[in-house]
Design goal:
Distance between the termini: 61 Å
Order of helices and strands: EEEEEEEEHHEEHHHEHHEEEEEEHEEEEH
Radius of gyration: 25 Å
Structural class: alpha+beta
Number of domains: 3
CATH topology of the largest domain: Chloramphenicol Acetyltransferase
Number of strands: 21
């Protein structure tokens, strides 16, 4: 009977590989079309890989813990001619030459149809500058290293080649002191560093942790500044108390940010060369803490929908993110993010925007603080929280972010407009 390959699918834009978490079938098992046979982890979520047709599992070519590139053969299904005709699957002999190719697609997902920014040429959000070079050591399982990263110290081609080989970036070597001329890091300095760190207790960073590290490293290449201001929380607390569906507190800030950005879209602009690209839509992310990292589900057209309209969808996507099973429709494409670090008791922090965004709004914990009242001429206890906006200083200045935060504060203190 014909044999049909199970290929590692493209699980999201810019995802080039995934790690096998669990094998849900064994050789000899009978499967149906669209049945989940593998559970895999990308740098964004845990997802299932399904069959393209029904039949019998002839072989499985991967194991749990293995990282597999997009397009690689993961297993073989033996199927009937009738099943292949019904499902439209392509037998292995027609795929054999193309299957090893692991290049991800360059098409945008349907969730990101049409870039958010107006520009004459194509602009793909979330893409790092330059490509990614795969390490050659360790069976090709190391961390992809961004190309074209230039630090303040000279690294010889030989040192850079060794860094690429074992998946080390310049950021990893921040405290290495070069012994060569003018502080140059020599190959001996590098090998001493590698031998030194090999002696420390360690564990392999998860795909999620590596993704966060890569994002923050790319973000820090821009001049990021932060501004903060207090918000009176009594209106939100009262509104939520009287609302029958009890919207999540973060949702109030998400909606307020959306309305403010609709009035000041340049504050969500993105700089490319000498141009600032202006967003077409107000799609906003919300940072959700998960095991060993953060996921950022993105809600679409937040400015065009009311608080009540967003409640069910917000609860759904936050729940999916916490379970690390986020629907691809809610992955990527945001122009700004809200991060509520107040849930951890933090009153002030410096959140960092994603590399594809120029703005993130942080929300601190609610505190009772004394505020002077001219009306009664004494201090009164007031429930207050700080919001912190971190932004790309190339795109906007303190005055721009100040005006944006003034509008955010207005909407938060008048939740009836949300």
């Amino acid at each position: 009977m014909p044999k049909v390959p199970i290929l590692m699918p493209q699980l999201g834009e810019s995802i080039a590989e995934a790690t096998i978490m669990q094998l849900l079938v064994q050789p000899g098992d009978t499967v149906q079309a669209d049945q989940e046979v593998f559970e895999v982890e990308t740098n964004k979520a845990v997802m299932g890989v399904t069959t393209v047709c029904g039949g019998t599992i002839l072989s499985l070519d991967v194991s749990a813990g293995e990282t597999v590139p997009v397009g690689a053969i993961m297993g073989i299904i033996e199927a009937t001619e009738e099943e292949i005709e019904r499902s439209g699957a392509t037998p292995l002999d027609e795929n054999a030459a193309a299957a090893p190719v692991a290049a991800p697609t360059t098409e945008k997902s349907t969730a990101q149809d049409g870039a958010h920014f107006r520009t004459e040429g194509e602009f793909r959000e979330g893409q790092p500058c330059g490509g990614a070079r795969k390490p050659t050591g360790g069976g090709g399982r190391g961390l992809p290293v961004p190309m074209g990263t230039h630090g303040t110290r000279f690294l010889s081609p030989r040192v850079r080649a060794r860094m690429d080989e074992i998946g080390i970036t310049e950021a990893d070597m921040a405290y290495v002191i070069g012994t060569g001329p003018n502080g140059r890091i020599t190959i001996d300095d590098f090998e001493s560093f590698v031998n030194y760190v090999d002696g420390w207790p360690s564990h392999q960073a998860s795909p999620m942790r590596r993704s966060v590290a890569s994002s923050m490293q790319r973000t820090w290449r821009r001049p990021i500044a932060s501004c903060a201001r207090p918000i009176f929380m009594a209106p939100i607390i009262l509104h939520r108390k009287n609302h029958p569906r009890k919207p999540g507190v973060t949702l109030y800030f998400l909606r307020a940010l959306a309305l403010a950005l609709a009035e000041h879209p340049d504050c969500a602009g993105y700089m490319v060369g000498g141009r600032i690209l202006t967003p077409r839509r107000i799609d906003l992310g919300v940072a959700v803490q998960v095991a060993d990292g953060v996921m950022v589900p993105v809600m679409r057209n937040v400015n065009e929908r009311t608080l009540d309209d967003l409640i069910d969808e917000y609860n759904k996507v936050v729940g999916q993110a916490r379970d690390r099973r986020l629907d691809p429709a809610y992955q990527g494409g945001g122009i700004a993010t809200v991060s509520n670090f107040g849930g951890f008791g933090l009153t002030h922090a410096t959140p960092m925007p994603l590399p594809s965004e120029s703005l993130i709004l942080g929300v601190g914990a609610v505190q009772k603080v004394p505020v002077w009242s001219d009306e009664v001429e004494c201090f009164l206890p007031v429930e207050q929280a700080h919001i912190v906006a971190s932004f790309d200083h190339r795109v906007m200045d303190g005055g721009d972010i100040g005006r944006l935060m003034l509008r955010i504060a207005y909407y938060l203190e008048h939740p009836e407009y949300l």
